[in-house]
Specification:
Helix content is about 30%, strand content about 15%. With about 450 residues, it is an alpha+beta fold. α7 crosses α11. It binds 2-acetamido-2-deoxy-beta-D-glucopyranose (3 copies). One 2-acetamido-2-deoxy-beta-D-glucopyranose (NAG) binds next to α5.
């Protein structure tokens, strides 16, 4: 498992690391110098964008493949190697079902350019997903720990900490960022005791551990899956699950978009992150559906997390910056209808520079992409976002507003939704989220940037 510098799951966590780019003197050659990792030497390839050399190291193993006796167990380091390992191609994607919303298979070859317009090292990781990463049988099978997917991420963070210097990176200047389940993961690492010290800054691109999750549902779903497999008669849950083919596990999954999510328990998330009391009401029934989904699943949880984190960090001098992304990309995931507006994940093409290299985007998309890459990397480098037009981006602690990321509203901020979320959240969370049940991907993304230092 584990392909560093590769990612590509809807679920992902990227690590942005500040970096003094070593410009290669060896034009014409397409291999990088050999890099000595703690586990052995590797050699990547050199590509070029706008006359800048980009070193790519693809498919670096940070752990052993989680198969056989390693399935559903904590990650372990790969055996060291001595021959130079060629890392010039992406590894396979993590095992996962077809995306039930988009109805497309994951191929593992989705390209994310590493557009080298800024001096950063981009690290993307694979981690175990769905049942492979989050199945949990509770106390009846204590040999299978909760949140294995988070454990992979933690392991990868440690890998970065130990190895990034070999690439010219600074292990003390790591920024982690993620979208959707990736964003939830980032918020988990903000709360995780063993993740402390492994990164300095974090960007949540929509979604936190305040999103709905229920350990009883998780355990029931885990047993349901178990019962569907040929293991159902076996007494030895762990060993039998380890004996199955990965495809049998995949084929036993329900067609749920969000199944096998994180749970409180274990070293990474020792406590229940959201403790909201029930109150009565159906506050949202009159509200617009899009907005209801957005607020509940992503917008409000992210604002609330940012707000609470800001109060916590404020005591230590840290800062949280919020943004509200509202520009709908012209060419990204066209099956999201116009009426859905700026949908969940629509900030991804901008952050990764897709409008600069792929057809179909507008001039405004290109401009926003350049600006957002500047913001992300400026934040990773300096711990604060740059000026947005004429506007200074104030931290949450100074002003409870979010910077709007839209070329047509450049430099404007929004207050209304932040205030709404802070005021109504206790009310909304317990009810509507359960009533709505299934996640739908229509909503505006909303986000928090945070600096720890
Ligand atoms: C990597 O290790 C090899 C073998 O020990 C050594 O010859 C080489 O100089 C090392 N390269 C770097 C960049 O440290
Ligand atoms: C799984 O099967 C066992 C044995 O037949 C049964 O007791 C249990 O209720 C089933 N669990 C679920 C969640 O279906
Ligand atoms: C798992 O497979 C091994 C090797 O084929 C076999 O000996 C063992 O009985 C199997 N265990 C279970 C619980 O199915």
């Amino acid at each position: 498992m584990g392909n560093l510098y590769h990612n590509k799951c809807l679920f992902k966590m990227n690590i942005l690391i500040l970096f003094c780019l070593i410009f290669s003197p060896v034009h014409g050659l397409n291999l990088t110098p050999i890099v000595n990792l703690t586990s052995g030497p590797i050699q990547g390839k050199v590509t070029e964008y706008e006359s800048i050399d980009v070193y790519q190291f693809l498919g670096i193993p940070y752990a052993k493949p989680p198969v056989g006796k390693l399935r559903l167990q904590l990650p372990v380091k790969p055996d060291p190697w001595t021959e130079v390992k060629s890392v010039t191609d992406f590894g396979p994607a993590c095992f996962q079902p077809m995306n039930p919303v988009l109805n497309i298979p994951y191929t593992g070859k989705t390209r994310i350019p590493m557009v080298p317009l800024h001096d950063v090292i981009l690290v993307t990781i694979n981690y175990r997903l769905n049942a492979f990463g989050f199945i949990y049988f509770g106390a009846n099978e204590p040999r299978i720990p909760p949140n294995i997917g988070f454990q992979d991420q933690l392991f990868a963070l440690k890998w970065v900490h130990e190895n990034i210097q070999m690439f010219g990176g600074d292990p003390n200047s790591v920024t982690i960022f993620g979208e959707s389940a990736g964003s939830m993961s980032i918020s988990a690492h903000l709360l995780s005791p063993p993740s402390k010290g492994l990164f300095k800054r974090a960007i949540l691109e929509s979604g936190t551990v305040y999103t709905d999750h229920d350990v009883d549902v998780l355990i029931t779903d885990s047993w349901k899956l178990y019962n569907k497999t040929s293991c159902s008669k076996s007494e030895d849950v762990l060993e039998c699950m380890q004996n199955l083919t990965a495809n049998e596990i995949l084929n036993s999954l329900d067609n749920k978009l969000v199944a096998f999510t994180f749970t409180a328990g274990g070293n990474i998330l020792p406590y229940e992150p959201s403790k909201f009391s029930y109150k009565l009401l159906e506050h949202y029934l009159r509200a617009q559906l899009e907005r209801a989904y957005s607020d509940l699943f992503f917008v409000c949880p992210t604002y609330i997390f940012g707000h609470q984190y800001a109060s916590y960090l404020g005591k230590q001098g840290g800062k949280v910056y919020a943004y509200y992304h509202t520009q709908r990309p012209k060419a990204y995931l066209p099956f999201f209808n116009e009426w859905m507006g700026t949908f969940h994940s629509s900030d991804i093409p901008y952050v990764f520079g897709l409008p600069l290299i792929n057809p179909g985007y507008s001039q405004k998309d290109i401009s926003l992409s350049r600006e957002m890459m500047k913001i992300w990397t400026h934040f990773a480098e300096n711990g604060e976002p740059p000026m947005v037009g004429e506007t200074k981006w104030k931290p949450f602690q100074e002003k409870m507003s979010a910077m709007i990321l839209n070329i047509d509203d450049w430099g404007k901020t929004e207050l209304e939704r932040v205030e709404f979320c802070l005021k109504e959240w206790d009310y909304l969370y317990p009810h509507v989220i359960h009533a709505m049940g299934k996640l739908n991907l229509n909503h505006v993304t909303k986000d928090v940037l945070r600096d720890d230092n």
